[in-house]
Please model this.
Amino acid sequence: MATQAQGLGDTILLEGADSDLDGLAVCHCGAGSEAGEDVCFVKFGAVLPGPDAADRFERLLNACEQLATEKGLGQLDAGMSLARQDAYRRMVDRGFRTWLQGVTMHNPNEPGYSHPDAYVIDDWR
Model:
């Protein structure tokens, strides 16, 4: 994919049952990328919604952690809207901590993909 072709990192494709795609993550890795030295940065990630979305999200986080380890990077960064309450809690349970807060405003004021049962990682820095 473009991230890999430009030498910025890699894209994780999360395979599901029947070889369907359960989710994906675009990760920037290390110096020369948006991540910076010794960091794997999940620029965007998402899993399919539905009853197994939380399990898919855990698998996606595992895959991101594995990528960081394989690349020899000491830190994994990912952005999250706190409106996605369960996804945020799962990240905190893994040791993620808030270091930058921001506000998104939508017109009209509707949740879009920032609602409690969405499992999306995005960063608006």
Remarks:
- The CA atoms of residues 25 and 120 lie 9 Å apart.
- DSSP finds three helices and five strands in the chain.
- The beta strands are 9-15, 21-29, 39-47, 75-78, 120-122.
- The mean pLDDT is 92.
